[in-house]
TrEMBL record:
Record note on domains: The HXXXXD motif is essential for acyltransferase activity and may constitute the binding site for the phosphate moiety of the glycerol-3-phosphate.
Keyword Ribosomal protein: no
Reactions accelerated catalytically: a 1-acyl-sn-glycero-3-phosphate + an acyl-CoA = a 1,2-diacyl-sn-glycero-3-phosphate + CoA
Listed InterPro entries: AGP_acyltrans (IPR004552), Plipid/glycerol_acylTrfase (IPR002123)
Any Gene Ontology CC annotation: membrane
Keyword annotations from UniProtKB, A to Z: Acyltransferase, Lipid biosynthesis, Lipid metabolism, Membrane, Phospholipid biosynthesis, Phospholipid metabolism, Transferase, Transmembrane, Transmembrane helix
SMART domains: PlsC (SM00563)
Enzyme class at the top of the EC tree: transferase
Protein name, UniProt field: 1-acyl-sn-glycerol-3-phosphate acyltransferase
Amino acid sequence: MNPKIRGLLFYAVTACSAVLLIIPMILQHPFVLIFDRYRRKAQFLIAGIWASLTLFPFVKIEYEGLENLPSPDTPAVYVSNHQSFLDIYTLLTLRRSFKFISKTSIFLYPIIGWAMSLLGMIPLKRMDSRSQLDCLKQCIALISKGASVFFFPEGTRSKDGKVAAFKKGAFSVAAKTGAPIVPITVIGTGKIMPSGYETVLNPGSVRVVVHPTMSGTNADDLCNEARNVMAQELV
């Protein structure tokens, strides 16, 4: 099948499943705020179903190292390389409640933006130092409340599949809170939907590798260790 036709079908499935699943998210949200305001596991369960319904007709995903995932109730700082728009879909299939950090403009999108707000995602204005500082403070506060956060330390999608330099924000949060770092390498999404070609969906499979957790009080050391682990996996 032509990759552009596959892309159209992918977005059609995405839209249809999102329209259906946003309804239970809205209906259960008052109860989520009362009983699970910070982790919002019920909302992430629906998000995981949505990601699975969207991906599985088109992409085969293989998982390695799932035993390295912390328990759902353990607050952690998850970090991953970033190659494609598909990465977030792929990571949501891990069935963990972690707060992604996203551009503020995405929150304005119908349905997807609403879902992100219901999930408690963290808005960030790029190139705004005050927004970046507020974002890190929110992450620290969420971890203290028992929630987990998710960073793409490269800050943007890689166009060549290699791991770019990491920003230290995620590792500063882990060092200050004592939360474990969970490094994850996603392999293959960049070939299926390359950065800059979001209307294309090539055939292929994805491999998700969950590495052993890391802990420490030195953000620089954690940053270098996590990047090295991912870079070695991508060789």
